[in-house]
Specification:
By secondary structure, the chain is mainly alpha-helical. Helices cover 68% and strands 0% of the residues. It is elongated and about 55 Å long. It starts with 12 loop residues before the first helix and ends with a helix. InterPro entries: MAL, Marvel, MARVEL-CKLF_proteins. The chain crosses the membrane at residues 37-54, 60-85, 97-117, 137-159. It is a multi-pass membrane protein.
Length: 168
Amino acid sequence: RPRSHTVTTTSSSFTANLSASSSTLAYDREFLRTPPGLLMVTEIVLGLLVWTLIAGTEYFLYPAFGWVMFVAVFYWVLTVFFLIIYMTMTYTRIPQVPWTTVGLCFNGSAFILYLIAAIVDASSVTKELDSHNYNSWAASSFFAFVVTSCYAGNTYFSFISWRSRTLQ
């Protein structure tokens, strides 16, 4: 006796929404004109300068410069990551993440650790240590303090944004 085969298909609204929403990426060009956007670009450019000035020396012989390299490269990569998130407006597609809190924690930790790294960098620069690398280390120390001030500014703007979200 022949069997009857019935096939039932269902469509999930989640997959329909996902395919519709991920087809185009938004691009927020105006973000680069805001104070936090300008500070992020400055952090990326000067942070790159900090770690390349150190990377061009024999920093691995001195643990203090290894710490500065770690902080500089770590926060450089994360800042590039966050710039991409803000430029592509990815934060609007992931509303489960408390982005104002994440931004405040990121910028606050970057400020504190970069301040420590800048102080370590400045206190480790001596001509007696290695006169061949003195200028690179001195320049990296200067730029580390400039990047620290940029992260301090972004921490301020993140705090203002976080504060306005928590008061709502």
